């Protein structure tokens, strides 16, 4: 087995674009790169999960996959809320903030794209940059959800930082959202 395959299999990263794979293969010919990828797909070392996106495992990190296929984006809405323990209902599908609305069905889950206007999508405030994907903080996911879906039930708002939320709500430039947020703030 080639040394680059061993490096690839040892990598913490689980989802790779063709460009990522070219960093491991280190060959200048595009034809050679395509040939190697095809060869290792046939040997069940690489799995094609979307056009130009591969994984070294039959199951991979859903968040990493969603962010790799759709970039620039970040994990938000119900996926981030479940991840942070704000809602308790398990979300197999991955909700991401992206520049258009769509749904892409993959093996055993869907990636649900939700449109946010560019000044929100590209605003890095309260977006956590993990090693292989980006995810909204619980406060940002809370606001994103209210912004797009309106009034929503949340299981656990106890850990929310309401001071941050009141500062962050300003980036949405939405009086309707500001008013809605006030209904969730605990009364003292």
Structure description:
- The protein folds into 2 domains: 3-55, Orthogonal Bundle (Arc Repressor Mutant, subunit A), CATH 1.10.10; 62-182, no CATH class.
- Helix content is 40%, strand content 18%.
- The chain has 9 helices and 9 strands.
- The protein has helices spanning 3-10, 18-25, 30-42, 62-69, 77-83, 118-121, 138-149, 162-168, 175-182, and strands at 15-17, 47-50, 53-55, 74-75, 94-98, 102-105, 110-115, 127-129, 134-136.
- The strands form 3 sheets. The protein has a 4-stranded mixed sheet with strand order 4-5-7-6, with helices on both faces. Strands 1-3-2 form a 3-stranded antiparallel sheet. A two-stranded antiparallel sheet has the order 8-9.
- It starts with a helix and ends in a 6-residue tail after the last helix.
Describe this structure in a few short sentences:
The protein is an alpha+beta fold and 188 residues long. It has helices spanning 3-10, 18-25, 30-42, 62-69, 77-83, 118-121, 138-149, 162-168, 175-182; strands at residues 15-17, 47-50, 53-55, 74-75, 94-98, 102-105, 110-115, 127-129, 134-136.
